[in-house]
Amino acid sequence: MEYKDYYSVLGVAKKASEDDIKQAYRRLARKYHPDVSKEDKAEDKFKNVQEAYEVLKDPKKRAAYDELGSNWQAGQEFRPPPGWNARSQQFTQEDLGGFAENDLGGFSDFFSQLFGGQNHFRREGHRGFQQRGRGNDQHATISISLEEAYHGVSKTIQLQMPEMDASGKIQPAIRTIKVNIPKGALSGQRLRLSQQGSQGRGGGLPGDLYLEINIKPHPFFTLQERDIYLTLPITPWEAALGATVKIPTLGGKVDLRLVPGSQAGQKLRLKGRGMPSSSGSGDQYAILQIEVPPAKTEEERQLYEKMAQIMPFNPRKDW
């Protein structure tokens, strides 16, 4: 059988740290994963990366592999040194990372000879082994303000996720995750965070995390699709005589011109002041609401009486 240089497979030095090995594995696993990769022979390369990581991530297996020495080169004909078969039988089921003999079919003869230990499998059988598999996808909701949805925001959240402990049991664990929410996000929109779901089985890739966006109610804006609506209170004289008033938008305050004779319920459009998107922003609409000041003094009451005499007006004349 051929000798396999696991360090070369992962592209790391023999003195690489555990973090270096983990980072190299994650990068190559994403590159060659059969579900997404367009590389030639991606599945074979993915298996090689998985096999190399299975050995080098574990201090006990790595130390045993390093004992073989540095005289071997990838592809050379290889036979284990005398007494190695006895050594391979010392690896427990936990040391083997949850792989049964049948599961090792995805790995090379080199791996099986060094760590499979045929006598070990005949003695232990397949009890307790766990097949390699992708982790489950997880789903959660993240609540943000309308301003955060408009401008985009980075948030750090904590979620309770099922994770496997050293004994192989599933336990709830708190995971801290940073998520970037793009500007123009809408309620109900889902963000996919690759490999942020549950852990994979037997060294398999983690699942994905899907975050559903929820935009919290705003004190004076309402959102309909990508359009923003604002109820704009104005005075009777602003409506009658016309005026220029400052109104809030999610992008800052702007001037809005009211024409003389503006009416309650009238809808004024501010083009492009709604939620942004790659295909074009929505609009903002100001709905006019005429607020009548109360007559709190005698002078104010007389002013209303004078208006009634000078400006006779019956809004119900058509009834």
Question: Can you offer a commentary on this structure?
Answer:
- The structure is a single chain.
- The chain is α+β, with helices and mostly antiparallel strands.
- The chain has three domains: 6-124, Helix Hairpins; 138-215, HSP40/DNAj peptide-binding domain (Sandwich); 221-310, HSP40/DNAj peptide-binding domain.
- It is built from ten helices and eleven strands.
- The protein has helices at 6-10, 18-32, 42-56, 59-66, 84-88, 109-116, 118-124, 146-151, 236-241, 298-310, and strands at residues 138-144, 153-164, 170-181, 190-193, 209-215, 221-224, 227-234, 243-247, 254-258, 267-270, 284-290.
- It has a four-stranded mixed sheet. A three-stranded mixed sheet has the order 1-5-4.
- A hairpin with a 6-residue loop joins strand 8 (243-247) and strand 9 (254-258).
- Helix 2 (18-32) runs antiparallel to helix 3.
- The chain is rod-shaped and about 115 Å long.
- The protein starts with 5 loop residues before the first helix and ends in a 9-residue tail after the last helix.
